[in-house]
Amino acid sequence: MNNFTFQNATKIIFGKGTEHQVGEEVKKHAGKVLLHYGGGSIKKTGLYDRVVASLKNNGVEFVELGGVQPNPRVSLVREGIKICREENIPFILAVGGGSVIDSAKAISAGVYYEGDVWDFYIGKAEVEKCLPVGVVLTIPAAGSEASTGSVLTNEDGWYKKSVDTELFRPKFAIMNPELTYTLPPYQTACGAADIMAHIMERYFTNTPDVDFTDRLCEATLKTIIENIPIVLENPEDYAARAQIMWASTIAHNDLLGTGRVGDWASHQIEHELSAIYDVAHGAGLAVVFPAWMKYVYKHNVPRFVQFAVRVWNVEQDFHNPERTALKGIERTKEFFASIGLPVTLEQLGAEEERIEEMADKCTAGDTETVGEFVKLNKEDIIEIYKLARE
Amino acid sequence: MNNFTFQNATKIIFGKGTEHQVGEEVKKHAGKVLLHYGGGSIKKTGLYDRVVASLKNNGVEFVELGGVQPNPRVSLVREGIKICREENIPFILAVGGGSVIDSAKAISAGVYYEGDVWDFYIGKAEVEKCLPVGVVLTIPAAGSEASTGSVLTNEDGWYKKSVDTELFRPKFAIMNPELTYTLPPYQTACGAADIMAHIMERYFTNTPDVDFTDRLCEATLKTIIENIPIVLENPEDYAARAQIMWASTIAHNDLLGTGRVGDWASHQIEHELSAIYDVAHGAGLAVVFPAWMKYVYKHNVPRFVQFAVRVWNVEQDFHNPERTALKGIERTKEFFASIGLPVTLEQLGAEEERIEEMADKCTAGDTETVGEFVKLNKEDIIEIYKLARE
């Protein structure tokens, strides 16, 4: 177990009807906000009206910027930065899922930076100061409501890059599981894959002696595995929606990663897919993660056996650990397929012809390796994309 | 699952050698501190010297107040309040275990209060403002390093009472598992019982639909159960000490209690024991908790079956759930005994003659009930003390 520092000060306000508290909560920080959101869904469901009413009731002024797309774009972020500067806005309220929150975080950093905000995402500049961000969460998936991360897409070349900084932790996250009742099954399933990937990226580690966080990871994975089929059957099952929503935050606020080095290769390999094909991040992960597992499991068979037995209840073959390990990988893939996700590149709509291009971008022309559990070069990544065809 | 608000901003600085960071960390908050500690153990181990050196290196002035006893006394707290006022001290640094931290929290609240600090503990006044508190932790047990609680003993009548407030969360907690190498086996075991009790108090709930936090509770309990025997065998096993230390914080920072109502009867029943007999809190809990379980398990047999199967790996008897439930309770008691803890009142040195007196104090003369899972009156508590004789 490694030394670590952990502090997650995001205030979680969780449960039925909690969106009505948003004005009161914002007011503790600011009297004027940028109200940032995505497409029309929050207007259709009435959430927009409830948020606006709560802001008005608490005398909070707001300027709107909607239109965040999945895989949020740097162009809209630049627009948000301009508005915040012109209107002297001291707080950003993100109402939506991970894309809206990540976009809000990017705006919050860009406001104080003289250069272009994309500089942060290509490592040309470091985030030193941010506007505070608050969240009303509508999609349990990205974990961005309490995380340090922001992922952004640059349409100019379709690059998808991420920034991690403690300054990106939102001040508060309002989480009402009822708001997720209207999530379509496919989006619910994509969220599940994203949540599970956040845990598995931390779970597959070379750091020894991480018994406690292993168990926390396994507990969180099992919660998702048990509850997703329930909400696909009955989208308005509050209990199951609530388990998923709270687990999604814990999966990515970095408690589960304390004292251990995560891998994150699958995320990077997936980012190339969703940057080119604009597929849902979770769907891409469902295709990539089992392929990555098959490619690397021999690096640490006991860890994959533990994963199979503890997470998937695989009956252990004590005489053939590899068989048990492979069963765990197979169960992971079967689970993704069973909840309606693609598990091959073809199902995802990705073409074999672009594998080399993606592997090349992923490794910056084979000059960098990807991942920590096993350090992968361009050839490795090509092999993983190929395994993802099956 | 109930609505909840959760925010734990305590900064955890975890790992080998981290006590050397204490001066740097304190300096972010204050230039002068009350250095609060217990008996001589931190001087014997050299920790005192390292802390003092780090404070001096960072130009932090300090005034000392040692002498905190297990079951910390209100008299010393009053002395601390006086010193902080006279010396104009803006920050309290607690170096020790739960008793030292709880004493520091009491001082931090008393400084701003005109009346007597004990008023907070008997509900005569509410904590409205506190000095900030920082921690260098030496005993994984009470979880006070990131919790909202403080437990104090009034020698005048030997009352033991607690206060809970978000204001009591320490600013930071420095946690080096190496500092726990010198903990005697009995104290290590008492810590284990305390940690497990913090989890079990939350686990045994009437709140339905708490799958996720159930699993987190189980993961944390199993971590303690697996790692305590390892450190009793080899006190300098860093890996196991580290799992226990981090788990002890998570057990009581209230993540595991989010969205659910805890019980806390066993804690109150135990407080009467340790108030009169001045026994270690953990030892008292090892005696009380299994007796409480035996008394209440019929209230929710499936929950006790889940506890037996998931926490203790009891082979489930599908046709006789009560048998499985009872096996889980028996395993709990056996575990406490196996790590060297008392499991009967007699082993604890408590006399049967005072059972009624303790039950009377616990329920304020049978005018109040204790616990939430099952609300217990004086008669119930007498029965539980009696069960604790066996």
Write the layout of secondary structure elements.
2 copies of one chain form a homodimer.
Chain A: E1 4-14, H1 22-27, E2 32-37, H2 41-44, H3 47-57, E3 61-65, H4 74-87, E4 92-96, H5 98-110, H6 118-121, E5 133-137, E6 149-154, E7 159-164, E8 172-175, H7 185-203, H8 211-233, H9 238-250, H10 265-277, H11 281-296, H12 301-312, H13 321-338, H14 345-348, H15 355-362, H16 378-387
Parallel strand pairs in A: 1-8, 2-3, 2-4, 4-5, 5-8
Antiparallel strand pairs in A: 6-7
Model description:
2 copies of one chain form a homodimer. The first copy, chain A, is 48% helix and 12% strand. In chain A, strands 1-8-5-4-2-3 form a 6-stranded parallel β-sheet, with helices on both faces. Chain A is globular. Chain A has 390 residues and is of the alpha/beta class. Chain A has 16 helices and 8 strands. The model of chain A has no long low-confidence stretch (mean pLDDT 97).
Kindly name the structural category of chain A: alpha/beta
User: What about the largest sheet of chain A?
Assistant: 6 strands, parallel
Global Rg of chain A: 20 Å
CA-based shape of chain A: globular
Report, as a whole number of angstroms, the end-to-end distance of chain A: 36 Å
Assembly category: homodimer
CATH superfamily of the largest domain in chain A, by name, is Dehydroquinate synthase-like - alpha domain
Brief write-up:
By secondary structure, the first copy, chain A, is of the alpha/beta class. Chain A has 16 helices and eight strands.
